[in-house]
Write a structure and sequence with these properties.
The protein is of the alpha+beta class and 120 residues long. 28% of the residues lie in helices and 37% in strands.
Length: 120
């Protein structure tokens, strides 16, 4: 209840991306959308988020101080909006994991990984 409905929270994502880029200059956000409209529906088309990639500028800047090996992995999201979270990490000199970039895609497919790695 504190964050509203699923649909309401989902609709704020493009705003959140813009704000993140404004307050953390150098942050990269890329996403693909499509629209959906029901037959006979007078409402404007709904925008559907197909996939999103983001990398915060501090992660981008810290990249050069890590070991020269990138690890990628995925985890499956559950609940109402299912999908797959793709991550890229490196290890710093103290063997701590250092996040580089993230993406949320519909499912773990070759095309989704290629899209993620393209922006990475």
């Amino acid at each position: 209840m504190a964050f509203g409905s699923w649909e309401q929270s989902y609709s704020y994502l493009p705003i959140w991306f813009t704000i993140a880029q404004h307050f953390v200059p150098g942050t990269i956000v890329k996403y693909k959308t499509s629209s959906s409209m029901e037959e006979g529906d007078d409402n404007p088309p709904r925008v559907i988020l197909n996939c999103v990639f983001w990398a915060f500028n501090p992660c981008i800047e810290g990249f050069k101080y890590c070991k020269p090996l990138v690890q990628v992995d995925e985890t499956f999201l559950t609940r109402k909006y299912q999908g797959t979270l793709l991550t890229a990490i490196r290890q710093d000199g103290s063997r701590n994991n250092f996040p580089l970039a993230f993406a949320i895609v519909k499912s773990e497919t070759k095309e989704a990984w290629m899209w993620f790695l393209h922006y990475l």
